[in-house]
Design brief:
Elements lengths: L8 H4 L9 E9 L5 E8 L10 H18 L3 E6 L5 E7 L4 H17 L21 H14 L12
Antiparallel strand pairs: 1-2, 2-4, 3-4
Length: 160
């Protein structure tokens, strides 16, 4: 087996230099048929300072999957980071960070107004860990993130 060094962009990012919350466009990927996919680092909390508890980030994941679709054309997926400080977001096309940040702001505003019935995929047959949700936690974190303001840049506070 050859030892090819693969550079993983997120592990080259200086996590101490960023200023969360922010949406940072990592790159625009081009597929073999010319299709474009925008990849984003959606950082909700300051790395190595705070993290979102699993129940809250799990419920945020389900609600963001619903609400981001309403505002972000070409939405593909928004998956939580294992470190629980944010999400990796993908969308079709060449999407500017500001557009994704505005969609996130909208989605988090909707989270603060959500009731349990609004959370999709909470039944055993719909979710692989259906018992580990916290709507209260998701709403509290959404409020905290919105109060801090969402930046379209990881290193400067350029609020949307």
């Amino acid at each position: 087996m050859s030892e090819n060094k693969v550079e993983i962009e997120s592990f080259t990012l200086d996590h101490d230099a960023v200023k969360a919350p922010y949406v940072r466009r990592i790159e625009v990927l081009e597929g073999p048929k010319g299709d474009l996919i925008s990849s984003f680092d959606v950082r909700l909390t300051q790395p190595n300072v705070q993290e979102i508890p699993t129940g809250a980030i799990h419920t945020l994941e389900h609600l963001l999957a619903r609400y981001l679709r309403e505002k972000l054309d070409g939405y593909i997926d928004c998956s939580p980071y294992g470190c629980r400080t944010g999400f990796h977001l993908f969308a079709w096309g060449d999407v500017p960070a500001a557009e994704a940040a505005k969609a996130l702001k909208y989605a988090l505003e909707k989270v603060t107004e959500s009731e349990w019935e609004d959370v999709p995929g909470t039944q055993r047959k719909e979710c692989g860990n259906y018992k580990d949700h916290s709507l209260f936690g998701a709403k509290e974190w959404a409020k905290e993130i919105l109060d801090a303001g969402i930046s379209e840049d990881a290193f400067e506070r350029l609020l949307v």
